[in-house]
Amino acid sequence: MIAELGHFALILALLTAVIQGSLPMLGAARGRADWMAVAQPAAILQVVLVALSFAALTYVYVVSDFTVINVVENSHSAKPMLYKVTGVWGNHEGSMLLWILILALFGSMVALFGGNLPPSLKARVLGVQAWIGIGFLLFTLLTSNPFLRVFPAPPDGRDLNPLLQDPGLAFHPPLLYAGYVGFSMAFSFAIAALIEGKLDAAWARWVRPWTLLAWAFLTAGIALGSWWAYYELGWGGWWFWDPVENVSFMPWLLGTALLHSAIVVEKRDALKVWTVLLAILTFSLSLMGTFIVRSGLLTSVHAFATDPERGFFILVLLLITIGGSLLLFALRAPVLKPGGLFSPISREGGMVINNLFLAAACATVFLGTLYPLFLEAVNGSKVSVGPPFFNATFVPLMVPLIFLMALGPLMPWKRADLAGVFSRLKLAGLGAVIAAGITLYLEQGGPILAVAAMGLVGWLFVASLVEWSDRIKLFRAPLGDSWRRARNLPRSAHGMTLAHAGMAVAAAGMIGASVWNLEEVRNLQPGESMEVAGYSYRLDGVEQLEGPNYLADRASLTVTRDGEEIAVLTPEKRLYPVQNMPTTEAGIHTTWVSDLYAVIGDSDGRGGWTVRIFHEPLVPWIWLGSLLMVLGGFVSLSDRRLRIGAPNRQAKAKAAPEPESGPGGHPAAAE
Amino acid sequence: MIFWLLAGALTAGVVAILLTPLMRRSDPAVARAAYDQTVYRDQLRELQEDRRRGLLKDSEVEAARREIERRLLLSDAESSPQETAAQLAPGAGSAGRWLAVALVVLLLPFAGMGIYLYYGSPGLPGLSFAERQDGSGREAEMLVAQLEQRLAGNPEDAEGWLVLARVYERSGRYEGAAEAYRRIIALGRGGAEVQASLGEVLVAAADGQVTRDARLAFAAAIEADPANPRARFYAGLAMAQDDRLDDALSVWRSLVADAPPDAPWRAVVEQQIANAMQSLGQPAPGGDSATAPPRGPSAADIEAMEALTPEERADFVRSMVEGLAARLEEQPDNPDGWLRLARSYAVLGDGEAAGKALARAEPLIEALPAEAPERAGLQQRLEALRAAIP
Hints:
Chain A contains 22 helices and ten strands. By secondary structure, chain A is of the alpha+beta class. The two termini of chain A are 47 Å apart. By secondary structure, chain B is mainly alpha-helical. The chains are: A alpha+beta, B mainly alpha. At the A-B interface, helix 1, helix 2, helix 3, helix 7 and helix 9 of A face helix 1, helix 2, helix 3, helix 5 and helix 6 of B.
């Protein structure tokens, strides 16, 4: 009965979305306040109903109710409880439900905190959110319904893909989806503004924090996903330019561009049309990311056709959303009034360049990801576009971007003096030289491009700190004074510094990991050792153990350096009998400068084991840097200036007050 | 039932909440420009704050202030009286209001029910893994409920009735099982097995008494397939209950003689034979070699057989058949034995030997007195084997 209630609640959510997508929209068009007001309770009901539905699905997973087909296909009675719960969204149907839940959550935020939005804008934003919701709810109910039942029930389930039986599954998809769905806010605001033909001042103030939130979630989601691949797949790599990764990376690139252009809209009332376009494209890419991964489209065009109903629905949904919103953009964008002017060399100009590079990088990834697919669909030939393509196209775009990233924050709005900016960056130049020098010393040479790249990263890192320390007059004023200034500095400024510095740290990690990474494979008898990058790995033995739903061979490797014990690594090789699938669990020890990474392979039958050791310099920095970026996002979000109050009704019933009344005397200002 | 109550309550709650803004007199709307002005004024305030904190130079503050104030003025000029009036309309026209109310009140319950009935399984309760393990028989109950529901919608589904009858029978609901078997017979799908099963549940329902209805069912089963062992067993039981023990004995004996060596019901029949003979004051079977059935393989033989490879098994079967043939050569006056030998040869694919065995059986059956109870049965088996042997 619980499953049926969840099913029913989901259907009610669809119908509530239909009401929310129609009445408020029509109300906004015809100036009917009562119809517009329906949007608010409808958005809150959505989240309640979808949450009920999600709770019901979770319940049937927890009790292993095998009368629910979805549970049969993705769970097993012997699966550990954690994975019973995370298995709810570890499959196509359940993940769609999670998507809808997050969408409803975002929608309810507008309903709850949108008091400062003009009612017609709010009604339209919620209306657009409801349209997205209708699309997803229909898709879920008609083609991917998690509540379909079967009776008589099979004796047990088919278990979850063992690769997904990992704590990473608890966090990675929800964060990634929160990122994808978060961009729906910018999208809804963009569509609503296009329909209204007016970009309000409140528009940018709303769009920026939601973009920031979505961006922070997406950054965290992608970083976690890459970390998960790193320790679970046992290949020693952290990014494979795999289509599934690329489709999550594209919205990140455009979302980063959107984040910056939204600042220009807010501060300078400029770049409005471009920002609207970015909002539409970012969410379109998020939709592709959501759908393409699970449709099987990316592995092969043919896999896509195995479920024609679902594939067709996805295609139509993407066509309506992307095509429809771009058409609306083409028709309505000329109506939006252009805003403030600026000279090419200015903070705005810097943001434009940033946007151009990010958009170009995104286009590169798009091409590399979809071209093989397109080719296969057209003439059936299979081409593989892998790391060499991306190294040759994507990386060169990142170099000028990182170089200019150091300049942007130092330039004032409207017009900047380039010579002055560079003069403030002397220290950063020194940073670049030092970083390159350290690299040269540590690696005794090394590829010259890699050394230059490390220098570039040093440049960005120091420049980010220079900007920040300039603003708080670090070392140029007494420390107490600097501390006071730092506390007075808006949180968004701290956030920017953190994010930019984080980018530098992560980039250093990426360079280090791809250039100086070592891999060694040996067949070791217990007691034998191998030497990799100055560390000695001794195989102590391999024991068999039995997990709750798997069998494992666990090796024990003692790592020593100059005779001193550093760590004991315990890589495992597991076999999940229900799905008859082996997985590897890498043994990893991090020194924070590099990772010692061990994988155990097969036994040779004579007591020896294949041992694969990776030495991964700077890899931990990738995630450290990502963490800094996410932290920067949240610090920036906590900036109180992003919150504004609603206009006071009594005051507005009369004529608007004089503009000269000044900022101090505003009663509804938010704190 | 509880599900429908909850679903109804949920729908009613959603409808009620959606209706609140439509039923309420809305507040006077705020002019559009006021929202922009709030933001601009907020920005001005931030500017002052930034200057107070020393984040911006005075010249920058002045430039930014001028820009914001210009926007503020512009937005003030934009909020023309007509626009304000249009924005202020708080839901003019009650016709529109009722239209919206009707949409909400009609769409949610009706479309909701419609979609749900199409995709949902309202009658199917949940079944957790723990409930299946605790032996409460909940799954069987659900199975019965589901079958009943399916058959209510499609009463022509003979296979469904058969499954239902079996489930009823297993849970001791004999009347229901009998009813289900009768349905199958009424659908014209009842063979000997179904008739016999009907008779059997009728006997079970009558605490072991072979009632008139049960006898009719067994008669029908024998009519459809004279070799049906279950019907023959109960026919014998009916005779025994009528105090015709001799007749019962001869029926059972022929049944045992026909029984495949590994028939699970063999022991039951032999037990009945022993009981009947005891009642008649005869010695227990085994002493009388003429009437005692030729011995089949013992439990030890079967166990040994299971350990063999297919080739060894075939050899083993052949050795057993040869043993039977040798015994029959010694005591040839055994039509039943010859028939069994013929069938064994037929199973082993030796049509010629089977034909020879049949030829030995035929005169013996002819020689039996016409009123001998086993004669008809033997005759039929003879005909059946003759048809089966190429």
